[in-house]
Known about the structure:
Layout (H helix, E strand, L loop, with lengths): L6 H13 L2 E2 H10 L5 H4 L12 H4 L1 H17 L6 E6 L5 H9 L6 H4 E6 L3 H10 L7 E4 L10 E6 L8 E6 L2 E9 L5 E8 L1 H6 L12 E4 L3 H11 L2 E10 L9 E4 L2 E3 L9 E3 L2 E2 H10 L3 E7 H8 L1 H11 L4 H11 L8 H4 E7 L14
Parallel strand pairs: 2-3, 2-5, 3-4, 5-10, 10-14
Antiparallel strand pairs: 1-7, 6-7, 6-9, 7-8, 10-16, 11-12, 11-13, 15-16
S-adenosylmethionine (SAM) binds next to helix 2 and helix 4.
Amino acid sequence: MTPVPSPLAALLRETIRTGGPLPLADWMALCLGHPAHGYYVTRDPLGRAGDFVTAPEISQMFGELLGLWAAAVWQQMGMPGTVRLVELGPGRGTMMADMLRAARVVPAFRPALSVHLVETGPVLAALQRERLAAAGVPVAWHRDLSEVPDGPAIVLANEFFDALPVHQAVKTRHGWCERTVTLGPDDTFAWATGPADPALAARVPEFWRVAPSGSVFEWRDEAPVTALARRVARGGAALVIDYGHVDQGLGETLQALAGHAFADPLAAPGEADLTAHVDFVAFGRAAAAAGAAVHGPVTQAAFLKSLGIEARAAALTAKNPDRAAEIATALARLTDTRTKTGMGTLFKAIGLADPALGPLPGLETAP
Ligand SMILES: C[S@@+](CC[C@H](N)C(=O)[O-])C[C@H]1O[C@@H](n2cnc3c(N)ncnc32)[C@H](O)[C@@H]1O
């Protein structure tokens, strides 16, 4: 398919012409994060008019329960006088606004906290600024977790890690090769594979190395997980919610979304969201190796129910009877376990923490 002409497509074409095929992870990083033309740099992709809807945009209940989770964890930490409340990839700021409102139930928590938003997109950062203008707590923006000042921290991330670049190794008759993007006929973008590489084969869990030709193994750079785990292991906790799997295996999950529909990941670089499932086994292993205690993962349904989403929905409905249908629909959607792709099943929650903290709310339940 001929790609939609765009400055990013021209730039990617030139990069491939001069430097050779791009590994998929580099393609994904540029499509999403190119400093001038990246998907997350140029737009607000959320909501009905955008490309996808996330849990905090479905219902205020999601952020509210996470606010209570953060307040409970702060109490577990011994109520430090200052604490960084950090969100990675805060979207429109909806979740943080709902969290801060709900956290009022623990009055001493708000005066102790400063909010730190890790965001690379200027359009979304402007929306966050607007959304949190009246929050009544200090808010600072950063491009990376490493910029958040030291000290006890509670970190939250919803649908952040799925947007980080993914690598794919493809089994060919020559061995395991990295998936790349090259130029096909008429300057279209096309899938290719790099040379067979024993270092890639070593990444594939031993059990699957003899997989048939055409098999795919996905992985991500562990550095962001390691950095998060090291940070909270020094004092604090993190809650990561995302879609992904708890049974490591072969198969590809890369997908492009545009206008709430699946798209070709190569057709319109920078114009479609690119994501891949989070491998929670690899995530937990990397976090544990970096010194954090790992809690969960549990399904989103189990996590939200254990935090009391059903009681919250009932209370909200009692206060707003005219919104009863909307609240019931949101509850059903967030906790949907009827199929493998329902949000309640597909999404998982995992906690990383200072090993001194002990069990974290909602994460010790059966999955
Ligand atoms: C799928 S959206 C999720 C937004 C929000 N958490 C929610 O649930 O509505 C991904 C978010 O991560 C941000 N983001 C993506 N890649 C990033 C990166 N490398 N560093 C910081 N933020 C990033 C995006 O701009 C956006 O705010």
